[in-house]
Amino acid sequence: MTSAVERAIDTAKAEGRGVLVGYLPAGFPTVDASVDAVLALANGGADIIELGVPYSDPVMDGVVIQRATNEALSNGFRLTDLFEILRRVTAKSSVPILVMTYWNPVVQYGVERFAADLAAAGGCGLITPDLIPDEAAEWIAASDKHGLDRVFLAAPSSTDERLANVIASSRGFVYAVSTMGITGARADVDSAARTLVGRLVAAGAPRVCVGVGISTAAQVADVTSYADGAIVGSHLVATLASGGAAALHEETIALSSGLLGARK
């Protein structure tokens, strides 16, 4: 049975285009403002939304996202606020939402409890940047029990064996990291992304989205010419920080324009 995330990607494929996946930190700058921001993304044309869990010791996040998550934490964000945001957004929007989180907060909360609360709040699953399939048995079991997606990451440095394991363990899509290093907008999305997506597809991945460094409609168009989706994070967070939900909505519309005609 296909998930809501998989259906969104498959629907876009049938329309001859890729998907726009938009990332925002939960609770930034506040819980109420975060709800408005996520809805702005959804209403602006994001096909799938990544809602990040603010964490005090990030290993993948660049400076823009670090500043935003630090502000959310300083304003009192707690993990239970994540589920409130999800409930409030999913009551008004059907755009599927994946939660992106480092693994430690899930372990501290309780893997089974987290999965149950995530599903109850309307979340579709997790993207886990620091959890590899080999160490994910508890999460795989919990996600199967609650019908949740599990999105694992693949990097240009990943071996063929690692890619096969990521593909077999993932549900929703495989997250292809476009370049080595931390998140942040870049003038050029690393050419290694195209090679990595080709390797994943050749190994049998049914759905692949590319993230890290994408910030323009032209880059969205380029990435979705060979992958199923483009993931935009730091650029959207910076837009929210400088212009609020209204500016975020307009920028999402602009980025979405890169999806039109990207696939031939």
Q: Could you characterize what this model shows?
A:
The protein is 48% helix and 14% strand. It is of the alpha/beta class. It has a single domain, classed as Aldolase class I (TIM Barrel), CATH 3.20.20. A nine-stranded parallel beta sheet has the order 5-4-3-2-1-9-8-7-6. Helix 8 links the parallel strand 6 (153-154) and strand 7 (174-177). The longest helix has 23 residues, at 234-256. The chain is globular. 51% of the residues are buried. The model is unreliable at 180-187 (pLDDT under 50).
Range of strand content? 5-15%
Give the strand order of the largest sheet, numbering strands 1, 2, ... along the chain: 5-4-3-2-1-9-8-7-6
What's the CATH topology label?
TIM Barrel
What are the low-pLDDT stretches, counting only 5+ consecutive residues below 50? 180-187
Can you say what the CATH homologous superfamily is? Answer: Aldolase class I
Q: From the coordinates shown, what is the CATH architecture?
A: Alpha-Beta Barrel
Which CATH C-level class is it?
Alpha Beta
Helix content: 40-55%
What separation lies between the terminal Cα atoms? 28 Å
Number of DSSP-assigned strands: 9
For the record, the count of structural domains works out to 1
In short:
By secondary structure, the protein is an alpha/beta fold.
Topology of this structure?
Blueprint: H1 4-14, E1 19-25, H2 31-44, E2 48-52, H3 63-74, H4 79-90, E3 97-100, H5 103-109, H6 111-120, E4 125-127, H7 137-146, E5 149-151, E6 153-154, H8 160-169, E7 174-177, H9 192-202, E8 208-211, H10 217-223, E9 229-232, H11 234-256
Parallel strand pairs: 1-2, 1-9, 2-3, 3-4, 4-5, 6-7, 7-8, 8-9
